[in-house]
Amino acid sequence: MIQLGLQNVCLNADVGSKEKAIRAAGNLLVEGGNIQPGYIESMMGREATANTFLGNGIAIPHGLPKDRELILRTGISVVQIPDGVEWNPGERVHLVVGIAAKSDEHLQILTNLTQVLDDTATIERLTHTQDPQEIIERLTRGPGGSSRGSSNGSALEADFDQSVDLAITGKAGLHARPATAFVNLAKSFASEVKVRYGDQVANGKSLMSLLKLGVEQGQTIRVMAQGADAAAALRSLQAAVEAGLDEKEETAPTQAVALPALALESDAIAGVPASPGIAIAPFYPYRRSRIVISDTAADPQQESLKLRLAVDQAKAELAELHADVQQRSGDQAAIFEAHQELLCDPDLLEAATAYLRPNHSAAWAWQQTYEERAKSLEGLKDATLAGRAADVRDVGQRVLRYLADRVEAGSQLPDHPVILLADDLVPSDTAGFDPGVIQGFCTARGGATSHTAIIARALNIPAVVGAGEAILDLPSGTQGILDGNGGKLYAHPSKTDLQRAEQAQAEQHALQDVEHQARFAPALMTDGHRIEVVANIGSPAEAEQAVNAGGEGVGLLRTEFLFLGREQPPSETEQQQALESMTRALNGLPLIVRTLDIGGDKSLPYLNLPAEENPFLGVRGIRLCLQQSELFETQLRAIFQTAKTSYLRIMFPMIATLEELRAAKFIAESVRASVSGPPVEIGMMVEVPSAVLMAAEFAREVDFFSIGTNDLTQYLLAMDRGHPALAKQADGLHPAVLRAIAQTVQAAQAAGKWVGVCGGVASEPLGALILAGLGVAELSVSIPSIPMVKAALRRQSFAQTQQLAQQALRCSTASEVRGL
Ligand code: PEP
Ligand code: MG
After folding, report:
1. Ligand 1, atom 3: nearest CA belongs to which residue?
2. Strand, helix or coil at 780?
3. 10, 62, 360, 625: which one is catalytic?
């Protein structure tokens, strides 16, 4: 057993930084004769590659494996920092346990650490004790030392003094994604956070603990906090819960119309429709790989280390998967973030470590732990929460693979089109499917709210789930039909049914393709009124993508891309080349170049600007350009040089006063004259409330307005557009924003000027229709939304959208507008 001597413990350390804390732990090891001084640098180096924050105020800095020869004798040191030191943003450490391990003698200490991790009272004691023996005793206690009870407490657990009762309003209750948002927010506070639901109490910083409460929609929870920032924690958590905990409604993939179920004569196996569409292809039974583990192991310390390593490897894998799915299906990638959060859960690791003691293997202990968790979720009444059991098993198996004796290979994924049949699938399986190969899938188990189903919808793969075990006996290679709309699998379709299904499939594909096909046609409404649909872009490559998606030009070029992520501003030539490459791709279609909009949440380190208390209300957009005239003039020169050969317009961002507009126009005109550039239309963004109120005056001095609803909403409602708890309420379809738009359009029309909208609401079909009805002439939208926005406009007459817009203006809340 490793010795932790008095000389290796330092109490009441006063270190002001993480680096000093690590060096203090290293110096104790040097003084104790455990390491050579060079190992301290290795400990610093380790921080760059690994996170040594263990949780709940404890960190375990250690060196890089390659530097082991600098270790003279395995040992640990403890630096107690009662005031704490910031380890990672939002994570403070009070006990720094420096580790120099030549062998694995230190593992019992790690095991002991994981046992106290969630034991706030013990950590609190060790953080403030004036008796080093107390720390030594707790960390060097041998196997079989006292252990704590399970995570979800009972009614006997006392509430904290400060608490707030909150209703959970999200459709799916406190399921994985909202619970992850809650846990992440709770973790950003030092205070302990607990959640009471009836007589159960959960650790508010543990995802698993929260999920196990099984809180459903409409239920009330008591959020409690204790600690220095308890009041602030409660305020933030309350705001986040009331704002819906970042809960996004699941968005349908790309479909504009609900697809009808097939009506066939052949016998069908009925399941649950999980993802719409029809697949006709041979069946392909798919067996997942089998993980073979040993139940026992001789050395619990070794097993404890193996477990920790396996969890780290699984976390790294999930980070990669998250990045990949994010690229393929956007929002749905959040599921894998929630999976990572499950693995960060101290309760889970603690429970698994506790199972190691009677000489069980890490694999057995881990499997036992996650299965228990999955089963307790399965037992919940709420179907969505119960469905999260699949997520727990998915994450569990990801770790288990690293602890297995062997993994017996499952089926390979096919390389030809199939309908895949499986007992059940986990989200990581579905995320790896190629929609060109997996035409559809059917599972024996599972529900429509599973993440597997959600990913299938995002990838546009028709799917039926919960069809029963009979599907597992269907012969491989038989041609079948999967109806994702009706939730049926036809195993032996007649010839006639096959023909009917093919025809229905072709019609549905055609229906889905209509919008895409018609992307190049103008957005002519049924009574002939035309809206120009252009794109928002932020890089040269996107100019071509915008054209290919049916964009009729570019309504907003965010030029910031040229200036960000570098050490000095781009030269005039570089800017001109970038602009010319875009005008070439646009081939005569209009391009609106917005001058630099830096400040707010975007900064340029090379400008050395002073930090601002309120950057969104500070020197941002045109204000910055007027102060940095060299930067502004260089950009304007590049624009006017490009204008000599190409068609473009200029637009100034963040104009709040007439003086700003006049100053910007004056500089633009002198630059134009200096390079003998052609006259160029000049417009301004309307995104500051004063610009709305003074729109009549502004309209006389510009050629056009483009309304930036993202900022306009932020400034009208006084809600930070990126705020985790407020962003959802900062809705661009709020009647206040719509009334501001109506006022701007009226002022512009009176002056004979046109108005575009380039903020996010223009990219939503409902937003596009209301804006058209308000008299907006141009909608500048995100590239993927172009076909959909055009199709939505084509289905309506201008008169209908005018009526809709008037109704929207009369609404009192954003949700009333969305309900129209
Ligand atoms: C806006 O504010 O709506 C806008 C389009 O500009 P940005 O999002 O670049 O601030
Ligand atoms: Mg803006």
Report:
1. 708
2. strand
3. 62
Task: Answer whether residue 669 shows pLDDT above 90.
Answer: yes
Annotated catalytic residue 723: no
The single residue listed with the structure tokens 């600690």 is 227
Is the Cβ–Cβ distance between 218 and 180 less than 8 Å? Answer: no
pLDDT at 289: 82
Tell me the sheet residues that pair with 71: 35
Q: Is 710 in the pocket of ligand 1 (CB under 6 A)?
A: yes
Helix axis angle for 346-355 and 300-329, nearest 10°, is 150
Sequence-separated (6 or more) residues with CB below 8 Å from residue 235? none
Distances (CA, A) of 584 to 173, 521, 574, 670: 51, 21, 15, 27
Does the beta carbon of 596 sit less than 6 angstroms from any atom of ligand 1?
no
Q: What is the mean pLDDT of the chain?
A: 85
* Residue carrying the six token digits 């593992």: 107
| pLDDT interval class at 451 (50, 70, 90) | low
At residue 443, the 3 state secondary structure works out as: strand
CA distance 548 to 619: 37
Average pLDDT (351-366) is 87
Q: Which CA distances in Å does 418 have to 268, 276, 437, 813?
A: 18, 16, 6, 48
Atom in ligand 1 nearest the alpha carbon of residue 687: 2
**CB distance 686 to 706 below 8 Å:** yes
Which is more confidently placed, 806 or 260? 806
* Residue reference for tokens 């005793």: 137
The pLDDT-based confidence of 147 (bands split at 50, 70, 90) is very low
Residue scoring higher pLDDT (643 or 215): 643
Distance 557 CA to ligand 2 centre (A): 12
CB atoms inside a 10 Å sphere around CB 238:
15
Annotation says 509 is catalytic: no
Ligand positioned closest to the Cα atom of 655? 2
Ligand 1 atom index nearest CA of 709: 3
Rounded to whole angstroms, the Cα distance separating 442 from 458 reads: 16
Tell me, yes or no, if 10 is annotated catalytic.
no
Is residue 492 part of the annotated active site? The answer reads no
| pLDDT confidence of residue 382 | 63
Return the bridge partners of 395, or none.
none
Q: What percent of the chain has pLDDT over 90?
A: 43
Rounded distance from Cα 683 to ligand 1 centre (Å): 15
**Tokens 């738009």 — which residue?**
741
Q: How far apart are alpha carbons 200 and 153 in whole angstroms?
A: 6
Measured from the CB, is residue 790 less than 6 Å from ligand 1? no
Q: Which residues, in sequence order, are bridge partners of residue 286?
A: 422
Q: Where are the beta strands (DSSP E) in 538-656?
A: 554-558, 591-594, 649-652
Q: CB of 39 within 8 A of CB of 100?
A: yes
Most confident residue range from 101-110, 255-264, 520-529, 645-654: 645-654
Given a cut of 50, whether residue 258 has pLDDT beyond it is no
CB 552 less than 6 A from any atom of ligand 1: no
- With 80 as the cut, is the pLDDT of residue 370 above it? yes
Element housing 217 (H / E): none
- In this structure, are residues 194 and 201 in contact, taking their beta carbons and an 8 Å threshold? yes
| Closest ligand to residue 760's CA | 1
DSSP secondary structure string for all residues of 568-600: SPPPHHHHHHHHHHHHHHHTTS-EEEEPP--BT
CA distance 115 to 125: 15
Please list, in sequence order, all residues whose beta carbon lies within 8 angstroms of the beta carbon of residue 129, skipping any fewer than 6 positions away.
Answer: 11, 80, 135
Between the CA of residue 91 and those of 16, 55, 186, 204, 698, what are the distances in Å? 14, 8, 11, 15, 49
Alpha helices in 264-299 (DSSP H): none
Q: What is the pTM of this model?
A: 0.48
Cβ pair 525, 773 in contact under 8 A: no
Nearest to 140 by CA among 103, 97, 200: 97
Helices H / strands E in the chain, number of each: 30, 28
Q: What is the pLDDT of residue 725?
A: 55
pLDDT of residue 569: 92
